[in-house]
Amino acid sequence: MPELPEVETERERLAARIEGRRIRAARIHDERLTRPEEPTWIAARLEGERVTAVERRGKYLLVRLESGAVLLIHLRMTGGFRYEPATHERAELELDDGTRIAYRDLRRFGTWLLFDPDEAEKHLAIRLGPEPLGSRFTNEFLAGRLAGRRAPVKAAVLDQRTVAGLGNIYADEALWHARIHPLRPAGELAANEVAALRRGIRTALRRGIRRQGADLGNGAYAGGRMQHEFRVYGRAGEPCDRCGTPIQKTRAGGRGTWYCPGCQR
Ligand SMILES: [Zn+2]
Prior knowledge:
Elements: H1 4-18, E1 23-28, H2 31-34, H3 39-46, E2 51-57, E3 60-65, E4 70-74, E5 79-82, E6 89-95, E7 100-105, E8 111-115, H4 119-125, H5 139-146, H6 153-158, H7 168-178, H8 191-210, E9 248-252, E10 255-259
Antiparallel strand pairs: 1-6, 2-3, 3-4, 4-8, 5-7, 6-7, 9-10
Helix pairs in contact: 1-8, 7-8
The protein binds zinc ion (ZN).
């Protein structure tokens, strides 16, 4: 499932091709993509629009249109854009410079929702906390979100209202950077541990963005390099890069969770 670094990589690639261009034609082949709206209605509203910007918020892409409307895209499990013909195409856009952009989604959980001006922000505000790489994601904010919670810290940081854009992979990586055991009750972290967690989250996400995300071999995020540099995710039995202890796998909040029993106490 794409997390912040994979979605940011998709944003950069899409923005480079579509910003400033006009959508000459839009074709949406899968009614699930735009539910509850009709695909033909969404396609008709996109046609003729000029794209002013492509932004990202958490795991969402915001395609801003000249009229002020926003196409809010969530890639979910396997959604993504392709710039050559691809299998499992659910939609395609043709631009005024002749560029053809395909939206591919093997599992079909992705969504395209069209919002009137300002409505997209309202939709996101109730679902997402601040951007973890932005200035509003402070130690005080994170401490407030974790305070009093008995859930494992791993589960707590997967809540998008706590850390927008974090998912299973980068949560494990962040906790390794912070030297915090994933099953520690969230509300029991000391102030210095919350600060380490915030730094760990930012470090893990920045490493992922620099390597253009992780390519986990399902064809969705081809080209990412982060999968070669995971510290713990998916590495059960391999030695920890920091202390040499074999990485262990457990479960936290119903998700497979990897950690180092030597340096994550
Ligand atoms: Zn270790």
